[in-house]
Amino acid sequence: MALFEEEMDTSPMVSSLLSSLANYTNLPTGSKEHEEAENNEEGARPSKKPVKAPQLGTLMGVYLPCIQNIFGVILFLRMTWMVGVGGVFGSFIIVFMCCSTTMLTAISMSAIATNGVVPAGGSYYMISRSLGPEFGGAVGICFYLGTTFAGAMYILGCIEILLIYIIPQAAIFKIEGLEGPEAELALLNNMRVYGTIVLSFMSLVVFVGVKYVNKLALLFLACVILSIVAVYAGVIKTAMDPPVFPVCLLGNRTLLSKGYDVCAKVVETDNETVTTQLWRTFCDSDSLDATCDEYFTSNNVTEIQGIPGVTSGILAENLFGNYLEKGMFLEKRRVASEESADSPPTGANRYVMADITSFFTLLVGIYFPSVTGIMAGSNRSGDLRDAQKSIPIGTIAAITTTSIVYMSTVVLFGACIEGVVLRDKFGEGVNGNLVIGTLAWPSPWVIVFGSFFSTCGAGLQSLTGAPRLLQAIARDGIIPFLRVFGHGKDNGEPTWALLLTGCICEIGIIIASLDAVAPILSMFFLMCYMFVNLACALQTLLRTPNWRPRFKFYHWALSFLGMSLCLSLMFICSWFYAIIAMGIATCIYKYIEFCGAEKEWGDGIRGISLSAARFALMRLEEGPPHTKNWRPQILVLVSVDAEQNVEQPRLLSLANQLKAGKGLTIVGTSVQGTFLDNYAEAQKADQSLRKLMETEKVKGFPQVVISSNLRDGTSHLIQVGGLGGLKHNTVMVSWPRNWKQPECHQQFRNFIEVVRETTIASLALLVPKNISSYPSNGERFTEGHIDVWWIVHDGGMLMLLPFLLRQHKVWRKCKMRIFTVAQMDDNSIQMKKDLITFLYHLRIDAAVEVVEMHDGDISAYTYEKTLVMEQRSQILKQMHLTKNEKEREIQSITDSSRGSIRRKNPSASRSRPSVDEGASVAEQPEDESVAVSDPKQVRLIHGRTASSTPASPTSPASPTDGAERGQTGANPEAGKDLFNMKPEWEHLSPVDVRRMHTAMRLNEVITKKSKEAKLVLLNMPGPPKNRVGNENYMEFLEVLTEGLNRVLLVRGGGREVITIYS
């Protein structure tokens, strides 16, 4: 292994890696640690015991917990009512649809759970790691709310069993003698009071000792299984000996069992006809000639068997639904009754009546919570001996078992129990017995007490699990305002999360109706299951290399079917609740997206982004974008200092202000050196760019290249920036500062090369001059103008850029003005009309002005400026010659200058238009000029001192220029340099003189019109074709923009970027 000795620190040996992975243990943060902490508190200094390996198998670890969580309060309290109202056929469809949804979800969950180690956290962990923190946080909160409301539902079920079936006398708000809304309100108030008491007690139990809840879990499970077995035993017994549960009917209406002692109007006692309690209920006296209710008089009283048995053939009668409006009487089918249409219904407290309006979608919402709980196995993954084997087998087996039980009970209830008894939600017609209890064997109390303890246990487990789920979300840190709930007691118990859970659970208790709470938690669970299916489908379709689940019996189509079923069931249950639940999830998603912590979990959404980006890039390769789709994709070239900090941060501010076009932004810089030696500097520069981009809110990508010199690095950025069809079409580079100083000559040469390269590559170029004076993103212009000087057509860039800038809040209040230049043979009036029409078609609001600029005589000052420019070019040229070449060149300049100095120039030649600055070096009197043969002057050129290039009279009065002037004044010999030599003007290049003349005339006009403008946009002239005139080109641009505060030089890319067409 000597070959790999140097890499041992970063790349461990395979043997040690396998050892660490094989000994990996993953105990969930929760009840187990809490129990161990409580046990440790009993001893003074407990010794650290080795952590035991998880020992739970499929049966105890997954199957039985899922069975316990799936079977619940709905089975015992609402299943018979659902069959009676929806019919066997409709109820079977509901059960099959819900069970199919959970089975498909379990298949998707099994695939995710077996794709690597799943720590405790269940569905939240799986979704967040599969779909990212945004989806994970949103669905995690929904799952938490669903679990919390499930706790409220179990507590309400527990109170309902207690107050209606076990101890009705314990009611604080008496229901006796009340009817209608008053009786309903009294029942709900009882539920609220007792529910709050039970919730407080359960929360206290969870807070004090979770280990007691865990130890009682087996007892609660035994109650559930015993109750279900008792129901099946009762069904078998009805075939041989049906139990006696008589139901009394008046006509076809079911009578309250507490309203009669004998199911008859009168009875014969000692050959005497005596009225019964039922008679006294409907009549005004005990006598036979009393005035009675009309319906009572017209119809007979009959007694039917409430549970005729499985062989009675009652199934045919219960096959189809019988949906009821609130307040309707429970009537037996196929039984005639005489009812006068004119007689008002009386005696609401005499009949069994529907307490709510029922319909198919309501039944779906109420029933669905009875199939939830399939995550119990995955939540315990840390306790399983082999989670990847146990979770799929145990979960699917539990769902199969519970689905068979649910479907069979639907059929058996319809085949054994009379329809009016099934529709009797609270057993008011069968002496107040729990309807499912009437079927159980050996006694109804088996079901009553079994369901009571199972609902208590389920409520305790919900109050145990929900705070830990919230704690897991809070500790992930993806939702900042929830971080306080990640803290708890020293042993890890989530105290604050338990408090919040109790408060939210109290909301469900205040609602007080089991039928109203069930659809709420159905929404949250359905949303959770929907995203589990989505996660599996996406991972399967994206085919990410890490997607290698051990569970092989899955398919993306099954996951999409499960997702579609979940979404459909949400809107079937309640479109209103569905929209609220999705709104809550969307708000949480957007909150995490904007304010949450950045997490990289290798999620599937990132995989979707990669696939979508690849697809989009391939589409972009099909051809260049249409003019209507053109937007500036900007490559911002910045320079960094020795500490790798950006020297021109305002460039990024300007780029951000131009991003109303929502195009690509690449911020690039180059680091000088080699990749091996300077990689650390490049990484530091990259971080500096990212930080600045984040500060300036620039949405884009940083790019740093390492090159042997900065010129090549910049060229590489221009060539290879972007990817495929998503490449930059515009380059933004700052105007080189202090380019006239000798030590900065390479800087402006690089700048001109950038101009040339963008021209060849057909890229647009933006050059902001005096970038430090540009506004930051926080500044606001309350008034002012953006002036566009449209001299040559550049494809519309000059029109588009001000429009984009004015979309940003910095420039929004500025008005746009467009100036164009008319020459001698142009019709300025027609030009203005045409330009106004053109802007109207472009839908751009701007003031228009045509400036007439005729070709006048070239002034003497123009010649002087050209002379200074050419002399500077000659001196800068000396800096690149060898010592001998320098001496020869200096001698030739000296010889030619001596002859020209002897000849006098007309005095008018020094006449000049008024300028803001003082006399320049070039305009000093002749008698102050000195020959360059002075040895001091020769040494000056050889030494390349700063005085060899004094400030140009055309440059703005910058601090650097002022310093140079000070140096010149302080040193008279240095001031008498080559710039004072005046060759004859006829020796100057006519092209340079003409360009200087144009630059000066344009500058005069622009300065006059746009001196106070907040920004001036100006066509940028093209660079010289050969490199001899580089210095002259810079001088022309300097003269063109002199006296202007903010100038944006714009050079088009050779294509139209704006169009009048829609």
TrEMBL record:
Pfam families: AA_permease, SLC12. Coiled coil: none annotated. Residues 945-960 have a biased composition (Low complexity). Residues 29-51, 880-977 are annotated as: Disordered. The keyword Endoplasmic reticulum does not apply. The chain crosses the membrane at residues 56-77, 89-112, 124-145, 152-173, 193-210, 217-236, 356-376, 396-422, 496-514, 520-541, 553-578. Residues 31-45 have a biased composition (Basic and acidic residues). It is a multi-pass membrane protein. The keyword Cell membrane applies. Residues 62-235, 346-635 form the Amino acid permease/ SLC12A domain. Residues 649-763, 781-910, 995-1062 form the SLC12A transporter C-terminal domain. Belongs to the SLC12A transporter family. K/Cl co-transporter subfamily. NCBIfam families: 2a30 (TIGR00930). PANTHER family: SOLUTE CARRIER FAMILY 12 MEMBER 5, SOLUTE CARRIER FAMILY 12, CATION COTRANSPORTERS. This is Solute carrier family 12 member 5b.
